[in-house]
Amino acid sequence: MPMSIKKGDETACGVGGRILHLKARAVLVDMEEGVVNEILQGPLREVFDSTQLLTDVSGSGNNWAVGHMMYGSAYREQIVEKLRRAAEHCDCLQCFFLIHSMGGGTGSGLGTRVLSLLEEEFPEVCRIVTSIYPSVEDDVITSPYNSVLAMRELTEHADCVLPVENQSLVDIVSKIQHMSHGGKPGQTIKRDSSIISGQGGLSGAEKPFDAMNNIVANLLLNITSSARFEGSLNMDLNEIAMNLVPFPRLHYLVPSLTPLYTLADVSVPTRRLDQMFSDAFSKDHQLIRADPKHSLYLACALMVRGNVQVSDLRRNIERLRLSLPFVSWNQEGWKTGLCSVPPVGHSHSLLALANNTCVKPTFMELRERFTKLYRKKAHLHHYLHVEGMEQSCFSEAITSLSSLIEEYHHLDASKGRLMHDAPRLSICR
Description:
Helices cover 40% and strands 17% of the residues. By secondary structure, it is α/β, with parallel strands linked by helices. A six-stranded mixed sheet has the order 5-4-1-6-7-8. Strand 7, helix 5 and strand 8 form a beta-alpha-beta unit. Helix 2 crosses helix 4 and helix 12 runs antiparallel to helix 14. The protein is globular.
């Protein structure tokens, strides 16, 4: 799905193989009909309101300018009307979730145009964006252009961005496939199977990207769990940006999940609770390829589900904080949430959201790929032919990205001046 917007709590669940007839508070937008038509013909067709879908027939042709400028202007009023209609059905509108891809034209262009529309129409409502970043081996040649142009919009208009790399998703799915072809005893899944959330099991032949999409769905289920279930430490969605974003532009939060197979019927022995917390800070459990332990933490949220006590949270934070480099002025920058209801098939789970400078190498790699194309002005004419698109958009976008990288670099440079276990009175002087 190139782009979708979702708000409110989860509104679909499976009971005895039946999907309850509840409508998702969502707007689905795609400038070609294929993916949306698959949804309308699939098992979730009753979940989405057919009046809240918006499609075209040609697509954006992997061109950010077509999605942002052309389709964004043509469909502006229709998108705003559908957003307002969905928002009116919310008893307590906490935030908007926007899910989009970065490499193509519709996801990057129209997706970020919708983000700016959300800011215009609902300026007081938090905007949390899940952005799917292309891998280096991406089959879209112009994806560096689209991603950098979209990055400027994300930096300017989002409250929080959860970057997810396609390559990380591929790596996680490869681990699942490896286990299905000879993993350790008790750690196997059925071959040629599809992971269906809500049913807690496997069915049918797997469609392309189903397993990867389920990982992202698992991320959203965990982040909204406190809004849907009871818990001793419920975390309001607005509290994520308030506690994890000390500087407005540095709002890119690295997500990590444990266990990684919550939506699959995998017979994985239950991880010890303390080991689960350690896993959450391992690069193998992150949805972006980076090593957080060699970078600097600005803040971190731990969102736990299951039979876990507040004392367990505090004990593990005290155990981990000694090995995690936090900025000197926020040594205790932890936000915690505790939901009593675990995911189906597991006794507990953990989602960690880390505001960490480890995102810098990903952005630097993206900038390098952009520069290789832009230095030769390759494919530029496709963008400049779109009405309203000027070459200055490219220079402004790369300047914005370079400025963001520089801000992370300055923070990294302060790592050598960390003050571990400094007395509180000395800090207050």
